[in-house]
What does this fold into?
Amino acid sequence: MALVAVVAGTSVYVTRRIIAREILIGWLEARGIPAEVQFRRFEFGGFSARVRVGAERDPDVTADLVEIHYGLTGFWAGRPLGIEVASVTLHRPIVRASLKGGKFSLGSLDPLIEEFAKRPPQAGAPKPRIEVREGVVRLATDYGPLTARANGRMEHGKLMALDARFDPAVLKGKGLSASTGPSQLLLITNRNRVDILLTAPVKDLAVGGVAATSGNLRFSVQGPYPDFEKKRGEGKVIARLDLDGAALSAGDRRLQDFKLLAKFDGSSTGWFETLALAGDGSLEASAAGLSGAGVEARGVQAQASVGDLRWTRSAGDVISSEVTTLITAASAQAGDLSLKNTRADFGGLVAFDDRRLDLALRGSLASRGAWSGLGPARSGDDPATAALKKAASGFQFTANSLTISTSGEEVSVRLGVPAKIRTDSGGEASLYRAGGAIYANGAGAFDLKVSGGGLPEASVNARSYRLTPDGLVASGQVKVAGSFAPVQDATFEEAGDLRLANGALDFTASACAPITAAHVELGENDLDKVAAELCPVKGAPLFSMQNGAWRLRGEVVKAAAALPAFEARVSEASALVDLRGKGAAMSGRVGIAGARIDDLAAETRFRPVRGSGEVRAVNGGWTGDLSVSDLAGRKLGQADLRHRADGRGTLAFDTGMLVFEEGGLQPVNISPMAAIVASPATGRARFDGHIGWGPDTSSSGGTLTVERMDFVSPMGPVVGLTGQVAFTSLIPPTAAPGQSLKAEAINTLVPLTDVDIKFGLASEGLTVEGAQLAVGGGNLAFEPFTLPFKAGASWKGVLNFQGVQVKDLVEASPFGDRVDLEARLTGRVPFEVTPEGVRVAGGTLAAIEPGRLSILREALTPVSTTPAQAVISGAVDTVQVPLAQADTAPGEVNAFSEFAYQAMEHLAFEQLDAEVNSLDNGRLGVLLHIKGEHTPPQKQEIRLTVMELIRRDFMNKALPLPSGTKVDLTLDTSLNMDQLLKDFADYQALRGSQAVQP
It folds into this structure.
């Protein structure tokens, strides 16, 4: 029996490897796990083997060498008979696993792991020492393969050491793209404390809209090793996180050359379900650049000191602490706004979990800044624009008492004192809210006041506002007074809604806003004394601005302005406005529905007219097409406006061929300067011209073409007026010498035919180079003279008689029924027109051929105080005839006076001379010297008796003046010239209507 036992034991020992192999493989295969074990050593106390688990060609686990040391237990140790594994050492194990769809798998080993997971751990059971040497884990994921190489050691159930190194990897899949460098995880346990260090370089990472490049992660933590038996993890905890990278972006937000350092120094208590942390911490972050939402910042730094930090899982993972933060930026740019030395300093309490955030912070904001939306300062800037640019070029922003509070979804911001913007030029803007939060739960209210230092005087009362996902919406009222290039000394008051979204500003007005401006700079076409109402257009904001670019859309009504360059004023204007610009550049259109234009020149050039059309701003200039009509709606012409960005431009206008007709358009309807053309006037005329301007010059010109005009002038009806006048300037009206107007006839007292007037226009008046009028078989010719434009100014001229037969002229005169004169006269009559009337000095006339003079006796009456003189009554008030001095009794006849009367009734002269001079009281004196003979129709002779000769009583009775009696007569006459001219003017006025028709 003993021999059998020895033999059996020897057989078992000799075949131990085969038995152990078959038992292990059979146990695995019984669970559906294919395996292969090749023992290298098998002896009491331990064995070693090569192990493969899984399919031969694609094993899940392989190990070149597995060393297991064990011991026997039994009654000698007071324990049941069995085997106790003391240590397991794995050499170069290779594990293939997968993590896909959120599920981890070890392939064929999954059933075995599931079986072991169902067994509760045996209390008090000894735990073997496990060591892995040069192990490899190949993990297949949804994004690509990962490979880790590790060495590790566990003793008494504790992970004492781990050195895991991850190969560089490229991962790509849904929502993830990553390229990592060699990474390492180190773990060392010393007694009851564990140190962990993770380093992971990230070349490129893109996940969930976040992207990073050239990043480095280093995380280290020192803490208590978890006591899994007592379920405790109490002890001191020290953690540090270092993170840096070349770039980190999320959407349009981007960090460049960023660094993050976070530290924690505290302690932990409790187990996983009740874990709590308490201690202090700090955070330091920096970025060379930060961009997003239209902001570019450089030199960004953040520091935070965290005190009394507490985190507990039992209270719902709530984190609370006292914090002190400081955030600075060396510079920042948002469109035309630039900031530097920006600083945010806050402190208070913070508490949060995954559901809510509670804050109670108080601190300050400060920054230097500048805004360049108006462009750089230029030497040509007007004072208001220069002051505004200076104010915007440098300012300091401060908010010294800012409180931020949150409680769950409740958020509020309050200002203990107004936030201020103080410009270097002395201006100030104050933001405040009296008696309430400036912001509360996405809404709020505020007041803003701006004044001084070149800034416009402005006040904004935002009665309410609310934040939107992309900005802000506010309702309130704004009042502005000041200068804004190119507008000076303006006022504006409006109520409405303001919207800020994605850096853009929109203002929608609730009603028409009154606007005034003392001056609007538009190059050579400035506006003065501007007043209007600006009304909103349905469905569009009144004013918009983004990145320094603005847009104005609205309807202008009741607009008025003076145009100094044109010496005109616009009023009663209405227009649809759509303008936009940035800095000094502007574009858009102004659709003018109607406007009244009045002449402001000292001498009125045109009657009030109405204009309409469209003006467009483009490429820094203006273009426009305008139509002009009179107040009755009759079209008077078309204008074309061109104004370039360099300040040069033209206004061209053309009346087209205007038709004048009775009951219709009349010249006097267009210009009072045409008052000489009495209504009704008929005919056709056209005027085309231009006004040009530039930074240092201006020009204008035009052409008046009279195709034919018939009208009544102060001299009488004018027939067939034609001609062309070329104006070299319109402001003031100027025409070069040599302009010509001709008329077929002027039907005055006597017909004037072949009228030809040559003239020019100067700034001071009308220069007539010469005027020829055919009359009485001769000519009336004016020597050159200047007719001043200034009202009431005096002017001089000379009228030359060139063989003019005055018979018809005298017959058409007011005394033509009593005086006949047949005389062809030549002479020169200088005259001066003064406010008191027409004055003549040194005029001379002479008959160039024999003629006749007849003054009816009925026109003559004796003058009792001057018995030697006779007076011709009527328009010729006093014609004095020097006679022989002889006293005549009342009722008696003076023969010599009788002879003189008869001589003037029928006088054929051979010589007639006249001297013409003005006398006092507006009278015109004419001194005539006539030589001729008495030529009555019937021959006359004197027959006397001897007794009559002796008594000489024939001298006291009327005697006939013998025919052929030689006469040498001097007549000294005077006419009431002023009254005569007035009567003539009144007479002509009756022949033509002077009323200005609408």
In short: The two ends are 154 Å apart (CA to CA).
